[in-house]
Design goal:
It contains 17 helices and 18 strands. The strands form 4 sheets. A 7-stranded parallel sheet has the order 3-4-2-5-6-1-7. A 7-stranded mixed sheet has the order 12-13-11-14-15-8-18, with helices on both faces. A two-stranded antiparallel ribbon has the order 9-10. It has 3 domains: 160 residues, P-loop containing nucleotide triphosphate hydrolases (Rossmann fold, 3-Layer(aba) Sandwich), CATH 3.40.50; 203 residues, P-loop containing nucleotide triphosphate hydrolases (Rossmann fold, 3-Layer(aba) Sandwich), CATH 3.40.50; 45 residues, no CATH class. It is globular and about 75 Å long. Helices cover 36% and strands 16% of the residues. It is of the alpha/beta class and 481 residues long. α1 crosses α2 and α8 packs across α9.
Length: 481
């Protein structure tokens, strides 16, 4: 018999308290692998016991099937609203495809309580129709990543954000596996790749990534860091996935592809083969990310560059299910997504507010590097924190043996803390103090002051005098521009 874990019960208690206070739309944020489906299955069961009609809505058939299985496990009778399935209006609970539901509004009694799975999609047009149709219902949105690529906020759809446990807490308490990250020293050059709907063009990024040298490197590093454990690889397109799977098979590693065009039975068979070890690497094309019920694997192989933090975290999260032997999850990041978005276990400042277009522009990715002077992770040729220019040729991505290195998570945390300290400096004098304490190249503080004021002409009146007075003959000279 399934029971809620303590942290799931705590989240359910927070939600109940919010509804008792009169809130009608709440958004629960809880990491991939934390058991969100089980939690809202129990919430559904309690709502039905009080006489409420419940509608659970998702956007993919795989997610609908998982929800249906979980409801059955906890003893909730339900009907399906899905293409090719006859609806049963007499049911108190329905699991609905959002695409099918909007065409059957008149066939189903209005629900009292609505659960939106993967609720970061709530701003999409089809989902907006649900809010308009059932404006009087109470809502529970559920997601691991309340962020959209277009930067649009969710505050027009939800009144309160309820935060579940952090990824780090789940790792520390053995509910998720601890990840180890391996990433390239230089990420793919995506400066020429257009953005379409906020993410890298699939055709253009595929032209960069779908090369024998890269897929061969993926096999090499799998054998070095993961074999004989299982892994899931994330690719850009079906043809890319097929090429990667063939490369693994040619190297003697059993591999297969899973994509949305396969029948339900065939997808189930291939996932089962991954679970029992008959397949060592399951290669995914836009399927194993959101809400997919994947068995525990040894790790993940990232071969799809993305500007989406949500997609990056979803993919890494698929590998973090705890292992029977207590081993770590190995993340082989061939595209620099971890450097681009940060570690999965890093604290996230989730809010219901959207990101401004200015911030999205600032976060656009050209080529991500780690500054050797201040350890900032940045795009382009000049570090935005210390101003150091790195004169290096843009490298076409040709992964070769030994280029993946393990990321030192302590250094990444320290670098983030250092950037926060700089961001909080409110005066030129405070920046001078940081420049001296860290041994930065002379002129760093002045550069940062200009950048922080967004005006190259905004030079502090006492810059020359202060800068001369604050630097001695012992100024370190081992930092180069």
């Amino acid at each position: 018999m399934i029971q809620l874990r303590d942290y799931q019960s705590a989240s359910a208690d927070q939600l109940r308290a919010g509804y008792r206070e009169g809130l009608r739309r709440q958004l629960l944020v809880s990491p991939t692998g934390s058991g969100k489906t089980v939690l809202f299955a129990f919430v559904t069961k309690n709502a039905v016991a009080k006489g409420n009609r419940v509608m659970i809505i998702a956007h993919r058939s795989e997610i609908l099937a998982q929800i249906s299985r979980t409801l059955a496990t906890v003893g909730v009778d339900h009907g399906m609203i899905q293409s090719g399935v006859r609806s049963d209006p007499s049911k108190m609970v329905h699991v609905a495809s959002v695409q099918t539901l909007v065409n059957r509004f008149d066939d189903i009694p209005k629900p009292d309580f609505i659960v939106l799975d993967e609720a970061h999609h709530a701003a999409a047009g089809t989902w907006v129709k649900v809010f308009a149709r059932y404006h009087g219902a109470r809502y529970l949105g559920v997601t691991a990543t309340p962020e959209r690529l277009d930067g649009r906020g969710l505050n027009e759809f939800f009144e309160r954000l309820v935060l579940g446990p952090s990824v780090q807490w789940l790792i520390d308490n053995k509910f998720l596996a601890r990840p180890r990250y391996f990433a390239p020293q230089v990420t793919p050059d995506l400066s020429s790749v257009r953005k379409i709907a906020g993410d890298f063009s699939k055709s253009e990024s595929e032209a960069i990534m779908d090369k024998p040298s890269i897929t061969g490197d993926a096999v090499l590093h799998y054998k070095r860091h993961l074999h004989p454990r299982t892994a899931v690889a994330f690719c850009i397109s079906l043809s890319h996935a097929q090429h990667v799977a063939e490369c693994f098979r040619s190297a003697g590693v059993p591999s297969d592809v899973i994509d949305g065009k396969l029948s339900d039975d065939e997808r189930t068979k291939r996932v089962t083969h991954l679970a029992d070890g008959r397949i060592k690497v399951l290669v995914s094309c836009e399927l194993i990310s959101e809400g997919f019920d994947l068995p525990s694997t040894g790790g993940a192989i990232l071969l799809r560059p993305t500007a989406s933090l949500a997609l990056c975290l979803q993919q890494i999260g698929r590998a973090l299910r705890p292992k029977q032997d207590g081993s770590e999850a190995v993340i082989l990041d061939h595209v620099g997504n971890v450097l681009r978005h940060g570690l999965a276990e890093e604290p996230r400042n989730w809010t219901l507010e959207g990101r401004s277009s200015k911030k999205r522009t600032r976060e656009a990715v050209l080529e991500t590097r780690q500054c050797e002077t201040c350890f900032c992770i940045f795009s382009g040729l000049k570090c935005p924190e210390c101003g150091v220019e790195r004169a290096s040729k843009v490298r076409e991505i040709e992964q070769r043996e030994g280029e993946l290195r393990e990321l030192e998570t302590k250094k990444m945390y320290e670098a983030r803390a250092a950037r926060i300290e700089v961001g909080r400096a409110q005066s030129y004098e405070a920046l001078i103090a940081i420049e001296k304490a860290r041994g930065y190249k002379r002129g760093w503080a002045f550069h940062r002051w200009r950048v922080s004021r967004h005006n190259p002409a905004n030079q502090p009146a006492n810059h020359t005098a202060n800068h001369t007075a604050n630097h001695t003959a012992n100024q370190p000279t081992n930092h180069t521009a």
